[in-house]
Amino acid sequence: MQTTLFSTQQWTVSKLTFFIRRLLEENEVLQDVWVQGEISNLSRPASGHIYFTLKDSSAALRCVMWKTSAARLGIPLQDGKAVEVHGKIGVYEVSGQYQLYVEQM
Predict the structure, then answer these.
(1) For residue 98, with 0-12 CB atoms within 10 Å meaning exposed, 13-18 middle and 19 or more buried, which class applies?
(2) DSSP label at 103?
(3) Above pLDDT 70, what percent of the chain?
(4) d(CA 58, CA 10)
(5) Distance from the first to the final alpha carbon of the chain
(6) pLDDT per residue as tens digits for the range 47-94
(7) Is 17 in contact with 23 (CB distance < 8 Å)?
(8) How far is residue 46's CA from residue 27's CA, in Å, rounded to a whole number?
(9) ∠90-36-24 over CA atoms, to 5°?
(10) Average pLDDT over the chain, rounded to whole?
(11) Residue 39's beta-bridge partner residues?
(12) Is the model's pLDDT at 11 over the cut of 70?
């Protein structure tokens, strides 16, 4: 029997992304992680949130730190700075990207 393109469940982009978001956000391990890396692409818009990429020699992870957590930061941030961050993995459905929501650094 030959499998056709439509023989499996069909998904809309929205439904698949939501499903993936739930998988990641319901995983207890991914909701309490410490990650080490180097800051790159640091952005501090007027909203007070902080956006950056955490990277190492083999991979990169998009990160966001909300204004309330950013206000508690006691260290200056800059591209190239090595840090250890704590947070939880989530999916920003609009762009279909997973990211780390950073609570502490």
Answers:
(1) middle
(2) E
(3) 93
(4) 33
(5) 54
(6) 999 999 999 999 999 999 999 999 999 889 999 999 999 999 999 999
(7) no
(8) 32
(9) 20
(10) 93
(11) 54
(12) yes
Q: Is the pTM of this model over 0.85?
A: yes
Write out the two tokens for 79: 């591209």
Phi and psi angles of residue 34, each rounded to the nearest 5 degrees, phi first: -110, 130
Here the tokens at position 103 are: 């609570």
Rounded Cα distance, 67 and 1, in Å: 56
pLDDT at 39 over 50: yes
Distance CA 57, CA 10 (A): 37
Query: Do the Cβ atoms of 64 and 50 come closer than 8 Å?
Result: yes
Closest CA to 89 of 47, 43, 35: 35
